[in-house]
Design goal:
The complex is a heterodimer of chains A (about 120) and B (about 110). Chain A has no helices and 11 strands. With about 120 residues, chain A is mainly β. Chain B is an all-beta fold and about 110 residues long. The chains are: A mainly beta (about 120), B mainly beta (about 110).
Chain lengths: ~120, ~110
């Protein structure tokens, strides 16, 4: 059974960089043709797709975040990571990591429990 | 503003049936499969339907999905109070080259 777990600081100051890591257990991150994704959810709002990466390092990002976001993968550690720089209060959200199936399916079948990141001084 | 459009809320009595619609465009639902997710407060979303109409093991057959053109529908029969949750549709947008979700629909079982 694949499991994902987000980790990182729960509080980030405005203008600084949000950094989160997702650790995959129960299977190799390199197994299968999956993409590994980050999705966030502000309190009381809907799901907001941030970006994805495959184990070859190919990435796609949400256009409005593209200038501030970097997703990377470390297959040796079975992890992938999110960096979002120049954060503001609008980036306060629960951040989920998830496994995405190949297209045309694109289902997110395994999710982390989510981690709340608050942007505040 | 979400790329996929869902009604903000639906409600029905226990035992009844409800449908939740998800409207998109030719670059997303028109080209790729749709998934449906159920999210209860404080938890991660859980996939209910994938590839438009398939149910993962463990999801009751009270839940069904369909897709036609640029729209998709989630159906829930025999409503139970435990079905109260937020429901999201999701797919890939080939034009935007991003994942997209609907704004979510809150189901109330009266």
């Amino acid at each position: 059974q694949v499991q994902l777990q987000e980790s990182g600081p729960g509080l980030v100051k405005p203008s600084q960089t949000l950094s989160l890591t997702c650790t995959v257990s129960g299977g190799s991150i390199s197994s299968g043709d999956y993409h590994w994704s980050w999705i966030r959810q502000p309190a009381g709002k809907g799901l907001d797709w941030i970006g994805r990466i495959n184990t070859s390092g190919s990435t796609n990002y949400k256009p409005s975040l593209k200038s501030r976001v970097t997703i990377s993968v470390d297959t040796s550690q079975n992890q992938f990571s999110l960096k979002l720089n120049s954060v503001t209060a609008a980036d306060t959200a629960v951040y989920f990591c998830a496994r995405m199936h190949p297209l045309p399916g694109g289902t997110y079948d395994y999710w982390g429990r989510g981690t709340l990141v608050t942007v505040s001084s | 503003q979400s790329v996929l459009t869902q009604p903000p809320s639906v409600s029905a009595a226990p035992g009844q049936k409800v449908t939740i619609s998800c409207s998109g465009s030719s670059s997303n639902i028109g080209k790729n499969h749709v998934s449906w997710y159920q999210q209860v407060p404080g938890a991660a979303p859980k996939v209910l339907i994938y590839d438009n109409d398939k149910r993962p093991s463990g999801v009751p057959d009270r839940f069904s999905g369909s897709k036609s053109g640029t729209s998709a529908t989630l159906g829930i029969t025999g409503l139970q109070t435990g079905d109260e949750a937020d429901y999201y549709c999701g797919t890939w947008d080939t034009g935007l080259i991003t994942g997209v979700f609907g704004g979510g629909t809150k189901l109330t079982v009266l």
